[in-house]
Specification:
globular, homodimer, about 270 residues, 9 helices, alpha/beta, 7-stranded mixed β-sheet
Chain lengths: ~270, ~270
């Protein structure tokens, strides 16, 4: 997966991922708490953007946070150490070849990972095996098809579509958020409940205008300029017009909408 | 506006509007309460789908509910009488030629009306004049551009686009929900706050599968089949495929998303 990771591994990209985590923490994570002593597997922790929130909100739970990238794990570990968190063990592991025994965990947490996988149901089914009966999985994914804004702009939609196409080429799915419910059901989880987390931004919410519209979403789309043009998906001028129009939605009369989906399911039997 | 009203005035359409109101009452209206004795103007009450909710939730407020259609007003009045509501006065009036004096009301309520107007800011500015300083306006609008679903379908999006095009031809805007904030600001309201009300439907929410995906949204799009084909916007086969695909999203593994926008603003001065 390393080569294909559409968001890249550069310093600027890591900064974007941190901004995103900062602006969205409450929206996405405020209802996630794990009991004292519970064993939680975080899958695809990356540079620890979500890990620090999880660990601080459930200080008595014991986290095992895995990622495929050693470099990301090193950054995540350093970050958690700086924050004084001692309840997280980091480990390099592949989601499709997990080194843990069946039912080794009480809870599994998967955030912004399935969007990069060609076989998300298979991944979820493997994670199901990691859970004790009655354990839970929490899945959070975005959906670029949930993006709309004012003023509307065909060029902006075309630029966003480049990201969707590149992610598809890499085997992923940038429109996966809406599928969290059927994916969890298909993987055998029960009592599945999905709740959308919509980010609505207008100029009465300046922290979101800056933290989400500009520095999270538009910066992410801007980040695929070179590969999108190189792949012949779009002309440079049209891409740049799309980015300008996305920044335009961050002005005083602009509006920007995006939705994340959070799903929770229960493991019924240790399959 | 009568001839141009895109939803039509037929019995089946009125049934759809009632189903819609039933399924969405809590989502859209649970936070709307008016104090005892306050004078509330409801603009574009239609057949009373929202009126009955407003009147029952604020039984001590006095409502004046206006519409351009005598036939709709008659149905609304009959409906309110049947429900035993006595705090609503119905009156035929044009939003652009209101028969009330300046500052005649404490609150104004406008639901699913701006989408049909070619000059929504002008309408809101006229309504602003109806309010006492410190009075509030509440605006609720949908946005067909907020529609996405699983399985995705280009034909379904094309069918929806017919409704958007027909509404545009009639002088309206089916994508107006996202503009509630800038429209209220442009009309001179202050302290404007907009909150999206997303309808998320999967098969764990069967009342919404039936009440919203099937009987509200898909039925509405189905209702423009004849005018869309007559206007040359789409081939009959493609439209029908789109409708089939919309119904497909109501099956066990389907997901359907739509968002309404509710905005509240304050009248600062009696302009």
């Amino acid at each position: 997966m390393t080569e294909a990771y559409v968001h890249g591994y550069h310093a600027k990209e890591n900064e974007r991922l941190r901004d995103q985590a900062g602006a969205l923490v409450d929206l996405l994570h405020s209802d996630t708490h794990y009991p004292a002593g519970s064993r939680v597997l975080e899958v695809g922790c990356g540079v620890g953007a979500q890990t620090i929130t999880l660990a601080q909100r459930s200080p008595e739970a014991r986290f095992t946070s895995i990622d495929i990238s050693e470099a990301s794990l090193a950054q995540a570990a350093e970050r958690l150490t700086r924050a004084g968190c001692t309840n997280v063990a980091f480990q390099r592991a592949d989601i499709f070849a997990l080194p843990f025994g069946a039912a080794a965990f009480d809870h599994v947490f998967v955030c912004f990972v399935l969007e990069h996988l060609a076989r998300p149901v298979q991944a979820l089914a493997l994670l199901h095996r990691q859970l004790r009966p009655g354990g839970t999985i929490t899945v959070i994914e975005g959906d670029h098809g949930s993006t709309y804004f004012h003023p509307d702009s065909a060029a902006a939609h075309a630029a966003i579509q480049c990201q969707v196409a590149l992610q598809r080429t890499a085997g992923g799915n940038a429109l996966i958020g809406r599928q969290v419910y059927p994916l969890l059901v298909a993987a055998g989880f029960s009592a599945v409940r999905v709740s959308p987390r919509m980010v609505y931004v207008d100029s009465s919410r300046p922290h979101l205008v800056d933290g989400f519209t500009r520095k999270t979403f538009t910066a992410m789309i801007e980040g695929v300029r070179a590969p999108a043009i190189a792949a012949g998906l779009i002309e440079a001028e049209r891409f740049d017009a799309g980015i300008r129009d996305l920044y335009r939605t961050a002005e005083a009369d602009g509006v920007f909408c995006y939705t994340f989906f959070k799903g929770v399911g229960e493991a019924t039997v240790s399959s």
